[in-house]
Amino acid sequence: MKFDEILIEALDRPITKDEALILFEESQRPENYLRLFKAASAVREKECGDLFRLDGWMGNNSECKIDPPCQYCRRAVKGQVMEKWEFGPERVRTIAQAFKETGTTTVEIGGGTDPEGAGPSVLRILEVLRDEGLEVWVNVGPALEEEHIREMKKMRVEAITSSFETMNPQIFREIKPGDSLEKRVNLAHMIDENDVPLISVLMAGIGESYKDRVDHLFYLNEMKNFYQLAISWLRIVPGSPLESKIVPPTPLEAARTVAIGRLIIRDKYINVSDPQHLQLWVMAGANRMVHAGASYHKKGGFSIAGTWVHPGVDHIDLGEGFEITNLLPVTSRQIEGAGMEVEPSVKKAVETFWKGKVAV
Ligand code: SF4
């Protein structure tokens, strides 16, 4: 089938593996990727509506014990460590209330892979955030036991993440030499078998083939409780082992993967954690982001994969050198400008924020 015929068919039904492969191979030229994005946006609108969710982030709840660190991680830069931030119950309650002030309804609890500490730590945080009425999803690598998943389910966690990045075993070993694809796949199945919604990440541009990407997308989509696809792309942290060894892809490679993913997974969330190219993700068919809303951070802004993110326009000082960095007053306007809606609580909080100020 030809490129344009596949896009027309895709408006009414999920594409096949062969069709996905053709779309990857033939969407590198602007006239074709623009047509691909148009089809992906139409499918998102038809299957998911026009809501775009901007989740909060509360990370560093556990140290990462993966050794050696993943080659693309800032932990792989000499002298860089990933700090663990302390969250006692009262502190979590204060953070939750600050999130709610921004209109945030949903928070990611993130952290490194610590098989001993991550599960219990997430459960303590989750209990308070749920008690405060926030939706929560969890992302702490292959560090959870089945008992943790069951406890989280009892607390009505929105979803739990198990990311593979790639399902090509050789590339996984090269790029994540201290990690285990098998453990990550097993965790994903444990989440699925416990009927908990599953989130998983595909990282584009680490040496995988288009066929690897297509197989990966279909593998995830066939899992019963697959709920959210997250797409990232390789970014080289200065000073990391990958510097000068691999040419990283452009964000467009991730956007083409988002769009083709949308034509496969149809009505599920697609998330890209990158506020700097927000309009690109909207155009490609995404409908959810983290790090583009309210995030708990040390004061002074934050970086994603070594790239500094603008420091936000709203800051809620939480003491001890931390704050909620709130990008919602800007990013919600960008979403609405692109013709989508944000959650009503976000809209209301942003309107209050801009009252009396010069809006963007
Ligand atoms: S699992 Fe995550 S935090 Fe740990 S080394 Fe890999 S990329 Fe870094």
Structure, described:
The chain has helices spanning 3-10, 17-26, 30-48, 89-101, 118-131, 146-154, 169-175, 181-193, 210-221, 251-265, 278-284, 328-337, 344-354; strands at residues 53-58, 106-110, 135-139, 159-161, 198-204, 226-233, 269-271, 288-298, 302-304, 307-309, 314-319, 322-326. The chain is α/β, with parallel strands linked by helices and 360 residues long. It has a single domain (51-354), classed as Aldolase class I (TIM Barrel, Alpha-Beta Barrel). The chain has a 10-stranded mixed β-sheet with strand order 7-6-5-4-3-2-1-8-12-11. The chain has a two-stranded antiparallel ribbon with strand order 9-10. It is globular. The mean pLDDT is 95. Residues 64, 66, 69-70, 73, 75, 82, 112-113, 141, 179 line the site of iron/sulfur cluster.
- Enter the CATH topology name: TIM Barrel
Strand ordering within the main sheet: 7-6-5-4-3-2-1-8-12-11
SSE topology string:
HHHEHEHEHEHHEHEHEHEEEEEHH
Rg, please? 20 Å
- How would you state the average pLDDT, rounded? 95
Tally of contiguous helical segments: 13
Helix content: 40-55%
* Small molecules (ligands, ions, cofactors) in the structure: iron/sulfur cluster
**Beta fraction of the residues?**
15-25%
Q: Tell me about the biggest sheet?
A: 10 strands, mixed
List key phrases describing it:
alpha/beta, two-stranded antiparallel sheet, 360 residues, binds iron/sulfur cluster, 12 strands
Write the layout of secondary structure elements.
Elements: H1 3-10, H2 17-26, H3 30-48, E1 53-58, H4 89-101, E2 106-110, H5 118-131, E3 135-139, H6 146-154, E4 159-161, H7 169-175, H8 181-193, E5 198-204, H9 210-221, E6 226-233, H10 251-265, E7 269-271, H11 278-284, E8 288-298, E9 302-304, E10 307-309, E11 314-319, E12 322-326, H12 328-337, H13 344-354
Parallel strand pairs: 1-2, 1-8, 2-3, 3-4, 4-5, 5-6, 6-7
Antiparallel strand pairs: 8-12, 9-10, 11-12
Helix pairs in contact: 1-3, 2-9, 3-10, 4-5, 9-10, 10-11
This protein binds iron/sulfur cluster (SF4).
Iron/sulfur cluster binds next to loops.
